[in-house]
Amino acid sequence: MIGPPPGTRIWLVAGVTDMRRGFDGLSAQVQTALSMDPFSGHLFVFRGRRGDRIKVLWWDGDGMCLFAKRLERGKFVWPRAENGKVCLTPAQLSMLLEGIDWRIPVRTSPVFAV
């Protein structure tokens, strides 16, 4: 995955979103539900009702970008809150996009103190 520019915040939009929405509908949701500016350069991540689809809205300075992903197996891990937002790190976003539980990452090998 190509990482976002330095200083970019990544916001998960809690609750479920109608995945039929496009640029305008998702931008309006950012403005009304989150009271944030969709043209801020931050990433806004939305999840569908079934949990197997997400969309990412991002203003890159020239235009609005809309990325979508559907998991063939499993679901995207999402906060239980019905409304609001959660801020993620780029590493957590990368785990989310791979279908990994970003809230409780587990190391595959033990860490040894030196």
Outline of the structure:
This protein is of the alpha+beta class and 114 residues long. It is 17% helix and 24% strand.
Written account of the structure:
It is a single chain. The chain is of the alpha+beta class and 114 residues long. It has one domain. Helix content is 17%, strand content 24%. The protein has two helices and five strands; from the N terminus they run βαββββα. The protein has a five-stranded mixed sheet. It starts with 9 loop residues before the first strand and ends in a 17-residue tail after the last helix.
Q: Characterize the biggest β-sheet.
A: 5 strands, mixed
**Mean pLDDT rating:** 87
**β-sheet strand percentage:** 15-25%
- What order do the SSEs take from the amino end to the carboxyl end, as H and E? EHEEEEH
Shape: globular
Task: Please give a handful of descriptors for the protein shown.
114 residues; alpha+beta; five-stranded mixed beta sheet; 2 helices; 17% helix
Topology (SSEs and partners):
Elements: E1 10-13, H1 23-33, E2 43-47, E3 53-59, E4 64-70, E5 85-88, H2 90-97
Parallel strand pairs: 1-2
Antiparallel strand pairs: 1-5, 2-3, 3-4
